Amino acid sequence: MCTLIALHRCVDRAGLLIAANRDEFYERPASGPALRATPSGPIVAPLDLRAGGTWLGVNAQGVFAALTNRPCTAPDPTRRSRGHVVMEALAAPTAEQAAEQLAAIPAAVHNPFNVFVADGHRAFALVYGGDRAGELRELAPGAHVVGNADPDDRTNPKVARVLARAEAAAGLGADAALEALADACREQGCGSPHGALGDTCVHTDGYGTRSSLLLRLARDGERASEEPFGGDDRLLFADGAPCTTSYLDFTPLLRELTQRARYARGRDHGRKAQ
Q1: Of the CATH numbers 3.40.1350.10, 1.10.1470.10, 3.60.60.10, 3.40.50.1820, which one belongs to the domain with range 3-273?
Q2: Which are the contacts of 22, defined by CB distance < 8 A and separation ≥ 6?
Q3: Assessment of whether the complete model's pTM goes beyond 0.70
Q4: Are 152 and 159 in contact (CB under 8 A)?
Q5: What is the residue-level pLDDT of the chain in tens, covering all 274 positions?
């Protein structure tokens, strides 16, 4: 995934708004968002069918995590797949605990990446350099962009352009803001010095924007983490470049996620009572 846009605690009735384009080789197989069982509980996430793991997802406590690859001269094929990082982050019940776990990843375990993690309370970004341990920082409420460069790096033309659009969207209501972020994900022909790779919706031979996801989580710091996903929450997914592929409604997965987590908690309590 190469472009993540986040509006965190800056839009009324939306603790977190996410728009995320995944750029990848066309031949790499993947499946769309679904309810996934993990040792720590159910999550909703797409799946990389080649290496396992995922590039983004959300758990039943409302913790969202997403990863973007950082460029490196020669990726080490013997290192652990970066797709497992998000799965491990989603095992945490809060963004703060997820961030602490991510910051503890030793150097030289994975190839370089950026990771964003947030819930209704707090948001964090981690830059993992591969040969050095990760650098963690907490993000203030507002608009943020995580791509292949440093998070919110306005010296990067693509990040600066998308961040300006995100900041404009933050001044809108939740529904309009989410649509504005979707428009940002469709953007191409930007005249970037990096050519097509500088567009938000990338189209090149053999590589490009494979999918796009929109997420609205209404819960904020005033709502309990155990509260079920409500009527204002949204999950939309385009299984293809969003400039030509419609977003489909996957919101029922959020309701199912809550129900599955409740069932698991009830089963565990029953076992302890025996």
Answers
A1: 3.60.60.10
A2: 1, 2, 30, 46, 55, 56, 209, 210, 211, 212, 213
A3: yes
A4: yes
A5: 589 999 999 999 899 999 999 999 999 999 999 999 999 999 999 999 998 899 999 999 999 999 999 988 888 999 999 999 999 999 999 999 999 999 999 999 999 999 999 999 999 999 998 777 899 999 999 999 999 999 999 999 999 999 999 999 999 999 999 999 999 999 987 766 667 888 999 999 999 999 999 999 987 654 445 566 778 999 999 999 999 999 999 999 999 998 988 876 666 555 555 5
